[in-house]
Amino acid sequence: MNRFFAFVRKEFYHIQRDRRTVLILFGMPLVMVILFGFALTNEIKNAQIAVLDFDHGQHSQRIIDRLLSSGYFRLRQSLTSYRDIEATFRQGHVKLVVVFPPNFTNDYAHDGLAQVQLLADASEQNTAISLTNYATSIIQSYNNEQNPPNAASPLQISVEPRMVFNPDLKGAFVFVPGVMAMVLLLVSALMTSVTIAREKETGTMEVLLVSPLSQLQILFGKVLPYLLLSFLNGCIIIALGIFLLGIPLNGSLLLLLAETLLFIFLSLSLGLLISTIAETQLVAMFASLLLMLMPTIFLSGFIFPIESMPRALQFISQIIPARYFIDIVKGIMIKGVGLGYLWKETLVLVSMSALLMGISLHNLKPRLE
Amino acid sequence: MDKAVITNKLTKKFGDFVATNEITFDVAQGEIFGFLGANGAGKTTAIRMLCGLLKPTSGDARIAGFDVYRQTEQIKQVIGYMSQKFSLYEDLTVRENIRFYGGIYGLNRADLKAKSDQIIEQLNLGSVADKLVASLPLGWKQRLAFSVALVHNPRIVFLDEPTGGVDPITRRQFWDMIYEAADRGTTIFVTTHYMDEAEYCNRVSIMVDGRIKALDTPSGLKRSFGTDSMDGVFQILARGTSTK
C-alpha cells in the first residue's frame, strides 16, 4: 500500500508541476460556464424591439421612452394589431415586442394595477431571457418611482413575459450538463491517456514494469488522482450552474454526485483504452480529441438537438456516453426526477463502463505476455 | 557462490521470427557482464525475458535462483533496471525521484530518508537536491539514474545502453561507479555500443542474429580472434554474418 501511495504522490507532483494541466483542470470549467452562460447575453445592446400600444396614454409613453433611452433597446416598428406580431418576429429583426393593453394608463392610475406583456423570440433562448429580464427591471424601476414612499396600497405593474416559438425554453440549461460532460471527459480521458503515453515515451514505463508494482497498481495509481480532480471539477461546475447561472436543483444532490462519479469512471475507462493503443502523447491526444471530444460536442445533443439530426447520426448518437449523462443531469436538476425515471440511462452508462474497462484490461495483458 | 544469472537454451520467437535462439550462459554474483551485439541482434528481447517482462518461448532461466516463468514477482524485488533514457522524472526534484523509486520498492520512511541523504552526498548533489532533474547536466542525471536503480540494493542491476549520448570523460566517471557497485557485490549486466566499454567488463558475450557467437574475457576474445582490440573482435563477428 505504501508503494501505491508513493506512486499516487508522484502523480500529484506531475499535475502540480505542469502549469498547463492545472490551468486546463480548473480554468476550463470556469471559462466554459461563463462563456456559455454569459457571452451570448452580454452582447445585448441596441436590440431591436417593436411596440404595440393600444393605450396611447402618458404612462405607456413614458415607459416606452425609458426602455428606448436605456441603451439596450432600439425601436424598429410600431405595430397596430396582434396579427402584426408574428409577421414581425418572422422577419427576424425584432427580438422583443412590448404590448400595452387598452386602458393601461387608466388602470394604473385608478386601480393601481396594470399589465404589460412582453413577447420575446425564444428561438434564441439566452437572448430572449435577458431581453425580458432587462425590460422587466426597467418597467419595475419606473413603477417604484411612481410610488410614494410608505404608500398604503402601492401601484403595481404586472409584467407578463411570454416566449414565442419555444415556450418552455427547452434546452436553455442544456449547456451546463453539456459543459460538465465535456470537461469531465477531457480531464478524465485525455489527461489519463496522455500521462500514460508520456511514461511510455520517456521510458519510465519500462522501469515501472520492472519494479514490483503490479500493472493494476500502476493503472489505478494513474487513474486515482484524475478521479479525485474530475470529481472536484464536477462539483465546481454544478456549483457554478446553481449559484452563478441560477439553475435549479430539483432532484437529489446525492444522486447527481453519484451519477457524476459514474460518468467519470466511464471516461477514465475510455482514457485507459486509448492509452493501451497510443504509444506517444501526441497520438493519445488526437485519439482523445477525435474519438471523444468531437462526437461529444456534435452528437450528444449538447449543441445540436438530437431530434433534428439525420437518422444515421441519431443512430450514432446512441453510443455517445455524454448523451445519457446530459439526460441524467437535466432530469435530476431541472425535472427533479429520481432513479426510477433514470434507471435506463444509468444502466447504459454502467454497461458501457464495464465493457470499456473490460476491453482495456484485456488489451493490457498481451503487452506484457 | 550462487550464480546471479543462469540461462539454458533460452529462446523467444515472435511468430516465425526467432529473436533469441537458444542462448546459454551464466553470470557470477558480483561480475560485470557485458552483453554486446548490433541493433536487432536480440539483446533487448533477452534482457526483457531476464527481467520478467517477456515470457520465453522455450528454455530456462534463473535470476538469483528465481525462475523466470513462475517467480517474476520475486525477481522484480532483487533486480534493478536502468534504460538508455535514464528513466528519471524530469519534473520531479532529485530528492523526489529518489524517494519515489525507493517508495515503489517498499522502503520505509526511515530508509527512504537515509538512502536519499546517502545518494545525494555520494553524488555531491547537495546544492541541487531540491531542483528539478530537468535542470541537471546529462552526466549528473546518468549517475543519479544509476544510484536510483540501486536504491533497493538489488543483487543484479541491468543497464541497457546506460552511456548513450554521453562524452568519454563522463562515461569513464560512470564506470567508476559501476566498479564500486560491483566491489560491493552487485552483479552488473550491461549492454553497450561502445567497444572501449566492453574492455571494462569482466566477461563479454557477443550476440549475432539471436545467437551468442562468443563469450569470454575481453583478453581471451582478443587472443582467440587474433586482434588487439574489442572493436576488431566485433568487426570479425559482424562481418562473418554479412557475407553469409
UniProtKB/TrEMBL annotation, chain B:
<dbReference type="InterPro" id="IPR003439">
    <property type="entry name" value="ABC_transporter-like_ATP-bd"/>
</dbReference>
<keyword id="KW-0067">ATP-binding</keyword>
<dbReference type="InterPro" id="IPR003593">
    <property type="entry name" value="AAA+_ATPase"/>
</dbReference>
<feature type="domain" description="ABC transporter">
    <location>
        <begin position="5"/>
        <end position="234"/>
    </location>
</feature>
<dbReference type="Pfam" id="PF00005">
    <property type="entry name" value="ABC_tran"/>
</dbReference>
<protein>
    <submittedName>
        <fullName>Putative ABC transporter ATP-binding protein ybhF</fullName>
    </submittedName>
</protein>
<dbReference type="InterPro" id="IPR027417">
    <property type="entry name" value="P-loop_NTPase"/>
</dbReference>
<dbReference type="GO" id="GO:0005524">
    <property type="term" value="F:ATP binding"/>
</dbReference>
<dbReference type="GO" id="GO:0016887">
    <property type="term" value="F:ATP hydrolysis activity"/>
</dbReference>
<keyword id="KW-0547">Nucleotide-binding</keyword>
